[in-house]
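Bench notes, afternoon.
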Amino acid sequence: MQESEKLARAWIDGWNAGKPDDIPLATDFVHSSPFGTVSGREKYLDWVRPLAEKNVTSLKIIRTVSSDSESAIWFEMGTPNGVVQCCDWVKIERGKIIAINSFYDATNLRE
């Protein structure tokens, strides 16, 4: 298994375990999603924790495609309103996740 896939899976596993602080995010981590772009690990975690508590009931990995430094992870996000198909493009450097671009329909999610 590629290191990028291991880190992409750690991303999903950290949220499922309710331990986002344990996810190996770089200090200068950048996350882009339908809600916008957030830069900085702590700023991202402070912003996303309450959103995840309201909107995410489960995450189930369907498939990954990986190279040395990037991984696409397709997963289902369980929400109070049903299941949302998601794909995250995860970039890594030096054993940390440096960026994620998330693709999903946010129509039924609350900010």
